[in-house]
Amino acid sequence: MTTDDPRPKAGYVETVTGPIRPEDLGTTLMHEHILCDLTPLARRGADEIEITLDNIFDVNWRPNDYPGNHRLQDETVAGRECAWFRAAGGGTIVDVTTGGIVPDPAGLARVARASGINIVMGAGFYTEPFLDDDALSLSEDAIFEIMLGQMREGTEGVRCGIIGEIGCSWPLTPFEARSLAAAARTQKQTGATITVHPGRHPDAPYEILDILEKNGADIARVIIDHMDRTLEEPEVVALARHGCVVEYDFSASNSRTTGSVFWICRPTGCGSTRSGNCLTQGWETG
Question: What is the mean pLDDT of residues 155-166?
Fold first, then answer.
């Protein structure tokens, strides 16, 4: 820890290359996957299909049908795209790749150094279909210890700076409920923000908030992701008024997102929420 290390002081942000002060964040994308493998476990190792001009339309239309389409592990490509973001005025990217979709802490640190971008890495686990039997057998206490270790000691010398995205399905599985409870406990120990991938049902965000609140989470520091595909605009405002932060993060693939963000931010939108600043945005791209 250097004399310029902000960790002893209140209000710092942990990045993959070390802590920074909040004023050094700059323009921030809150929900991205720079290095990951979103291929379901059952399909990993299958022969990958080359993406060409002949099939690109169908790849975009049916992305899950093309093995290899969800694997983002080329650090050179990642570094180049992060450098483009920096050249456009960007400062920080939050990579919410968690256990089950192959996070790469050392790789993210290399990309951050090469591109000049701050990268914040997420702690925890993704949804159950991406997890092996060893992960699914973990108790709440074990999940908590893993998350706390990722925040405090780090992996490969790289510490996480946010909890999540914590993966949740609909209906919520027993593992995912334990994961949420462990996330709340980790927040109580660290003060870090929690970001959550909700199941595809209008009731899913409320079930998530209920579990987090019962386990002591500060709801004002909880982000519920993927509003673009989960709730209609009036329902998003109602959710924000429960005190959490709502996130639109399909900006790269959903033409509805920009209009929804403007609708939510209008004067009669979520300006009267308990949390004040109620909206974050991302692109959900690698």
Answer: 96
